[in-house]
Amino acid sequence: MDKTGLLVGLDIGTTSVKTVVADTSSNELRVIGAASSPTKGMRHGKIVDIDQTASSISSALKKVAEKTNSKIYRVVTGIPVGMLRLDSASGLINIGEKGQEVGDSDVKRVLASAISSATKEGQEPIAFLPNKFLIDGKTDVDDPRKMIAHSLEVHGILLTAPAADLHNIRKAIERAGYQNNFFVPTPLAIASVALDEGERTFGSIILDLGGGTTTATVIHENKIKYATIDLEGGNDITKDISVVLNTSKKEAEKIKQEFGYADPELTSPDNQFPVNVVGENAPQMVDEEYLSEIINARLEQILARIGKGLDAHDAFRLPGGVTITGGTSVLQGTDDIVKDVYDVKARIFQPNQIGLRNPLYAASFGVVKYAYDLADIDYLVNSVIYNTPVTVSSSVEEKTPEKMKFFKRVQSNSEIAGKEDYNKDTVASKQKNNNARDNKKNKKGLGDFFKKFFD
């Protein structure tokens, strides 16, 4: 069945493609399905083989289309923090010498001026977040339309990404048989669903434990204040298991998912499982504590490196603590390790909608929510950046204003941050077993070593 009003969020990760479909035809955001598919053709968050990535995208979208009995034509795609660049941007235009009413075309002209002036060579804009509009250089307003003005000025933050990377993403989506409607910044998308208003205002850290990369984004006063990336993730944990246990990567990934713990204190050496070892005729028995120590060593190394930049920016003093997302966070005890290494409160976020209750879908669900909440001004921004009327309906024909109601977002003047704080370091589950932790609280591990080292 061809359903109008569909909004499809796409998260292209190094290890898996995730997609969430929501129905907006009833003027509400109603998630109706989600699916994921293993990714090929990606390395450390970037496309290295367009055809393989296209096949992965096609697999995920076909799977969710069948699950929801829907036809999908267009998607909205998240851009990870590792690709983002933030720059201050401003534009100024004349409205009329005698003053006249500001219309959509005037707003688009001033937005185009700001976006054009701030876009750096080799970069391509994906979003512009207005801080304020100024009428005649003095009156600060959120939306200048229908106001009388001689001149119109806008100040905000321009988010761009490398043009080559965006080209590869678009091309992969097109070869999969779909069209990318527009891009959204993944960290702001995740913040829209993973953090409450207080956490976004007073400050929190979003820690995304992906397969190919690990990223941390600081959200404070509804702004991106700082972001950092580490080029290791869940794939590297799998490689460690493969090397140490002398088994295939496929086998290593399987036992990681079935028997893996991030925290050795939650395990017992008495619990064992068979591992198919290369060159051996019979499986070898390995205990879960030993497996957990392999996992924990790599995880704490990643957290320690990420933690340097966070500590330098006083991020651990923010009251919101750390909110953990990403597929690797499903390992039991991940939140405890983050608490121990960073000495802050930490929690794992997973969407609570039926079918999405996995941290894996935090980004794709966030993309859908962020796109649904777009305000009128954001719609004008996108029409400037992408040079076409922007719609997220699954039906190409349905583009009437009535079908655009899922673009409404209450605009905030403090949704972004200055470029200096960000660009300086841009490159840069199950229930816990509390009794087991209490019985082993004196046990020394790599977490203690790293905490002492960075203290």
UniProtKB/TrEMBL annotation:
GO terms for cellular component: cell division site; cytoplasmic side of plasma membrane. Transmembrane segments: none annotated. The keyword Phosphoprotein does not apply. It comes from the Bacteria. GO terms for biological process: FtsZ-dependent cytokinesis. It is found in: Cell membrane. Residues 418-447 are annotated as: Disordered. It is a peripheral membrane protein. Residues 435-447 have a biased composition (Basic and acidic residues). Coiled coil: none annotated. Keywords: Cell cycle, Cell division, Cell membrane, Membrane, Stress response. Residues 7-194 form the SHS2 domain. It holds the Pfam family FtsA. HAMAP family: FtsA. Self-interacts. Interacts with FtsZ. Cell division protein that is involved in the assembly of the Z ring. May serve as a membrane anchor for the Z ring. Belongs to the FtsA/MreB family. Belongs to the heat shock protein 70 family. This is Cell division protein FtsA. It comes from Lactobacillus rodentium.
